[in-house]
User: Fold this.
Amino acid sequence: MKKETFFEGLKDIFEIDNDLEESTHLHLTSLSTLALIAYLDKNFKTRIKVAQISNINTVSDLMKLIGEDNFE
Amino acid sequence: MNDINRNSQFSLSGKNILITGASSGIGRECALQCNASGANVILVSRREEKLKEVAAELNGDKNLIYVQDVTKYDDLEPLVSGIHAKIKKIDGFIHCAGIEITLPVLSMDHQQYEILFATNVIAGFELAKILSKNKYRNSAGSSFIFISSVMSIVGDAGLTGYCSSKGALNAGVRSLALELAPKKIRVNCISPGFVEDTEISDNIFKNFTAERINSKRSLYPLGFGKPEEVANGCIYLLSDASKWITGSNLIIDGGYSAR
Assistant:
């Protein structure tokens, strides 16, 4: 997936209006965590567990969790 | 046979009860408890292996299992026709088949709403329609139960689709009860609170932290429920003891909605 497309998806989930960067902090709530898990499942066919997501702070952390080779 | 006497008005002795979603959770428990109360049960689910496991726990030789996805609506009349040909009368129907999706509304898409309504609502009403046809209905009367949820009367973040599907059941049941009363068919909902030890609860807990589980549990004055609590309500609504009850919604929620 193109990074730009991924960033747009994250902006929708977290309702971020500003441009997103890899250093952007993601403020996870219980619901946004579920939304994120569903998004990753649908777009990357990967089942991420809540415990894994809870360690995520930034967009970069999330990309590492998904696997950076999944991004163009 | 459980403690309820066969001759009691609460007995299901000799009744034939059709149960969807019977392979697990509340549906499975309804199958076991109705059977323990004297009923022959006809179990419907997509999952053959799980159905066989439930069937192995039943008493008697008049129970039946059918592997069927209830959202394949065109298959439902042949299903009922086949069941009716074998057992001649259907005294009760419990629509337990159901799915739950927890997502913020921004992440829901139309397909997820459609999936929720297909299983939770439309499949049940389609079966009720078929079972109420003169050629299948029991002229002595029958009882239909739809497993709704306490979430049909209260809300919670992330449950717009699920809550609306269960609310649709409550609303539909009132009309259905009025429409089918002349055919001696009673129609009711049961709205359980959070029931643990089911696949749905296990899936929900997978996405919950321990803190969130405890927070949720604290909202239940009597704690989380067990499937048998709901099954007991079904036995009552299927039995002759509830013969004057139709169009109602029996809330079994450990006090969750009392606040």
About this structure: The radius of gyration of chain B is 17 Å. Strands of chain B lie at 16-20, 40-45, 64-67, 92-95, 142-147, 185-192, 249-252.
